Structure formats: structure tokens, C-alpha cells
Amino acid sequence: MTVRSRRIDHLVLAVRDLDRAAAFYGRLGFRVGARNRHPWGTANHVIQFRSSFLELITVADPERIPPHGPRSFSFGRFVQDYLSRREGLAMFVLDSVDARADAARFARQGIGDLEPFSFERSGRAADGSETHVAFTLAFAVDDRLPDAAFFVCEQHHPEAFWSTPLQRHDNGATNVSSASLQVERPGDDAAFLEAFTGVRPSADGLVYPLDEGGRLRLEPTPARTASGGSGGSGGFSGFGVAVPDLGAVARRLATEGLPFEELPDRLVVPADRCFGAELSFTRES
Q: Is the pTM of this model over 0.85?
């Protein structure tokens, strides 16, 4: 069966203080969208790019969070459970043109026999006017990575979501360029990741190339600490965003007094200062 290639649709960044996270990303030079609320108890802000976006999300109404079901994945419960342990990049999302067909394919491939999840909400355009958006999600599951969620997202009214004005950022950011996933042994997760992404990895098994220049990168889970604790959770460690001018971004970060490391090919904002997810600004290719 031929599976079409996909792009990164969005990354879900779970944070405990949504207002503080939104303000921080604004200082980084991103245009942060309006606050939205979900009927299942979470709230978010969206940072939109050319063909992808970042979703800053938190639990706003704990009493409204539904439990997982035998064949249903509770988006809100995953976020709630994740935040009980840490903040960071919690969910990796690819695009879909038919999420229900993708859910059926995931079931046939043995990576998630879960019902698709459809929802809709109101939103705000760049001029402040109200919009109406709707989505259907299809989830896949890798039991080896309990702290990482994977799904595809079909947008039913893309013209109401994607907005050129919302894609103009002071730091010049144009797209999500990568997500980094910590695994113990890349080969153990290869079958799942190939089935989910529809692509084969690089020769060393560490990079899954996606459309629009995106990459899913694998990196080793940090070694266990001397006290016996794990150095990492085996989940997502960080992500990259493409910008046209690294020098301009470095100057902005310095002016804002934000911590970063300047490397030859990227600027890195450390995870412990970026709500649990390392942010790399990479040069647009």
C-alpha cells in the first residue's frame, strides 16, 4: 500500500502557565494568536507559520477532562497526565487529507486501533473577527514512548484557519523545521515511525524526512543518573524553527536578555528556560 508523504502539521507544547508561556514566546519574536478554549478542559494559543504551527496548551478546566476509553484517546487527559510529570513537547502531529482513512490504516498496521476524534471551535482572525474551524484527529500509539503522543490532523475549513498576517513574525520565522525524539534504540521504534510517517529513515536510522523540509530526528535517551534516576523520559526533547537570518534572531534574544547558545548552524534556547522543550532556530534552506 502506498502512503503519501506528509508534512509536520503542528507540535503540541504542554505548559503549566499558559499566559507566561505566551508572553515568553512573544519575547522570542513570535506572533502569538488569541487564547482559545476547548470543551474538554484545555486552552491554547497558536503560533502559525507557512504550513505548520506551534500549539501552546494547558489544562484550564480539570473537571472537564474526560478519561481515556477502550478505543478512544483523550487529548485532554494526555495533556493533564503529561503536565503532572513535566512540561515540554508532548505531541507530534502530521497533516491528513482523510483522518478517518488514516485511523483505519493505523489499525491495520497495528499502531493504534482508536476511533477518530472530531471537534470544532471558534477562533480569531488577525483582524480580530471570529472564525470557525473544525478538525478530525487520528491517533497512533507507540507503547515504548508513553510520554510522546502521535496523531494526524485533517482540517475541514483550512481557509478559516491559515492566515498570512498571523504568519508574520518579528523574528522572521517561516516554519517548523524539526522535532527531536529521544529513544533508547532507534531500531526498536523504526516500524512504528515508518508506519506513522509513511517514509523510511536516513541510512543511520536517525532522521525521517518529511514534506516542506521538515524532519523528525531521533537522539539517544540520556544515560541514567548516578542516583538511579533516568536522565530523560524517552519522549520529545525539542524542536526547530526555520528563520532567514540567525544574526537578527541572536540580536533580538540578546536585547531581550534571553539565554541562548550560538552554534555555527543554529541558535539554541535551553529546555530549562523554554518550558521543557529545547528550541533551535535554524537557517532557512
A: yes
